[in-house]
Amino acid sequence: xxxxxxxxxxxxxxxxxxxxxxxxxxxxxxxxxxxxxxxxxxxxxxxxxxxxxxxxxxxxxxxxxxxxxxxxxxxxxxxxxxxxxxxxxxxxxxxxxxxxxxxxxxxxxxxxxxxxxxxxxxxxxxxxxxxxxxxxxxxxxxxxxxxxxxxxxxxxxxxxxxxxxxxxxxxxxxxxxxxxxxxxxxxxxxxxxxxxxxxxxxxxxxxxxxxxxxxxxxxxxxxxxxxxxxxxxxxxxxxxxxxxxxxxxxxxxxxxxxxxxxxxxxxxxxxxxxxxxxxxxxxxxxxxxxxxxxxxxxxxxxxxxxxxxxxxxxxxxxxxxxxxxxxxxxxxxxxxxxxxxxxxxxxxxxxxxxxxxxxxxxxxxxxxxxxxxxxxxxxxxxxxxxxxxxxxxxxxxxxxxxxxxxxxxxxxxxxxxxxxxxxxxxxxxxxxxxxxxxxxxxxxxxxxxxxxxxxxxxxxxxxx
Length: 464
Hints:
Elements: H1 6-17, E1 22-25, H2 29-39, E2 44-47, H3 50-55, E3 62-65, H4 71-80, E4 89-92, H5 98-109, E5 114-121, H6 123-129, E6 132-136, H7 139-152, E7 155-156, E8 159-160, H8 170-199, H9 204-214, H10 222-230, H11 255-266, H12 271-283, H13 286-295, H14 307-339, H15 346-352, H16 363-373, H17 384-407, H18 412-424, H19 431-442
Parallel strand pairs: 1-2, 3-4, 4-5
Antiparallel strand pairs: 5-6, 7-8
């Protein structure tokens, strides 16, 4: 293992727990000493020189890298290459952009060194006790390390949450989309919190009760579970709850934006991921938001009616919008599979996301079943089960959005999910007017709905 931060160290001990002797390397001597101290008498070796690290491994070597994505990965590879032998394997287990993985794979193919891009999800606890693992690369090389990956991965019904996803950058692409879905789900959950807190005037204990209840039903998921726990976490520095002391400005590591960017390239609509990225950007304008809070007065909050009815409608709205987010993410994976020749096992992806990863949820069982019924399914909207679920909950999300608009509380994720659904169920959209405008000002041409061919019109009173 190269990179002995918390994730790297935890994976080292996870591998060791399953019978593997592991050497760890980090240029930071402090991290190496942490590994040695925590290892005790385990078959774990900590090293701070790269030459000594490489020499300690039996040939052919298997080296995992958990270092920051970008130039650091390239620097590590360049430093390693002169020290490696034929058939050694490098596994990039960080959040690298899939295009970088393809580039590195192509460069290393010129040598006799093998390379795999491997997505890992589950955070610190997952790394230590069982993450969801998303490997891509040559299948024969994957099979070489499959026993180890299966051993350390999370398990659901005794099935390991790891499978070969395809050649090249397939693993890192799946991890990117996983993170994009994660962005979308977190945005939706935060909107439900916002509505219950501001319009419903719920305190943290009441919020804990609502989210805990939701986690016992069809919204059961890791994100719902930790959200419920967050509301009761006491602040060590004050007498209040920690969630109330955290600044409302969100960071991001780029993977959500990468998902949106490639979805645009592939012309696949993923509005819930797009909106989540944008809202993180909006949150960063904290000073502006505090100023405009007083400049632009919104409606007075006058929520009337049963708060339990609001919570019930919100449960349905969350189910609708979270389902929409998964559908969008899976559609992007399907399009990428065709475009980049990944040949993704769609049911397999849903299966390995059921345990260990951040977006694990009960809903993934339904996704598995849908792809088991129809392996070539282009969109889950075409699955009768998913279509019925959206139809059953659309009334509630419309009511929730009306409440948000009336109370002046932003619900962009839920609005985006509903607009996406309404667009897909519309046999006619006003795109004909857009095409007319494009042809008017730019001679971009258009197609007609009554005959074949490409047309252009010299529009009357055309501006000069």
